[in-house]
Write a structure and sequence with these properties.
Radius of gyration: 18 Å
Shape: globular
Largest sheet: 6 strands, mixed
Strand content: 15-25%
Number of helices: 9
Distance between the termini: 33 Å
Length: 251
């Protein structure tokens, strides 16, 4: 479970990214976080894995006080929390398999990191992860030969290989065409259901958020203004979240 208790996050310039956030997210939920650009969506999810530090309140992940973690504690937290970005963050000149194997590097001894030596078990897990997202046949293809949707699937497989309990996704389909975006969102939904994996996704595609997520959190100016089932999101709710403004991009 993830629990925010009166969480605030203030940037060094004094801007408050989050204001008095109180929310609980249970294991296995699929949560879409929506709102205008700059509303605090990315800040919200990046506090969960300590990419951003909260400045007030309490934040717990599986009963661990995230704010108190240091060094090895932060690394252990992040091993259980996969992170997927809009930009994929892949080594484009390497093969798909090598990109997935990167997920094991943080836990490897120094000599194996230096030589790039992976165990048979690590290779098996990487290939299994590729199979889970439907691109096992691309294992030995260079990443720069893949489509954008296939590259995002590689990023998802890399995250699955580390067997996290939680996946955070920061605008994972923003750079994809509508058909591919639907396919990738379907991958997230299937993984959420089959593996009981918590998924928290910052997304600006309102239609995709409502179609695939089971829960929606709406953030406006750093505050949660809606938290409920996706099916209960009405035009009135959207007007509240977006302050009467709708995103320019709505494929």
């Amino acid at each position: 479970m993830i629990e925010f208790k009166h969480v605030e996050m203030q940037y060094p310039n004094g801007f408050k990214g989050l204001k008095d956030i109180n929310v609980q997210i249970e294991q296995g939920e699929y949560v879409a976080v929506i709102g205008l650009s700059g509303a605090g969506k990315s800040t919200f999810i990046r506090c969960i894995n300590r990419m951003h530090d909260i400045t007030d309140g309490e934040l717990y992940v599986n009963e661990t006080d995230v704010r108190k973690l240091r060094g090895a504690g932060v690394r252990k937290l992040r091993r259980n929390i996969g992170m997927i970005f809009q930009s994929f963050n892949l080594v484009t000149r390497a093969t798909v398999l090598k990109n997935v194997l990167v997920s094991f590097v943080p836990e490897m001894p120094a000599w194996r990191k230096l030589l790039g030596v992976f165990t048979q078990e690590e290779k098996r897990k990487a290939l299994t992860a590729l199979d889970q997202v439907g691109i096992l046949d691309k294992a030995f293809v260079r990443v720069d030969q893949l489509s954008g949707g296939q590259q995002q699937r590689v990023a998802l497989a890399r995250t699955l290989a580390q067997t996290p309990g939680i996946i955070l996704a920061d605008e994972p389909v923003a750079s994809l065409d509508p058909v591919t975006a639907n396919q990738v969102m379907g991958d997230f939904a299937r993984i959420n259901k089959e593996m009981n994996m918590t998924i928290i996704m910052n997304i600006h595609h309102i239609d995709l958020a409502l179609e695939y997520a089971t829960r929606v959190i709406g953030i406006r100016a750093g505050e949660i203004v809606y938290d409920g089932h996706a099916k209960d999101v009405t035009e009135e709710v959207l007007n509240t979240i977006y302050n009467g403004q709708r995103p320019i991009e709505e494929d």
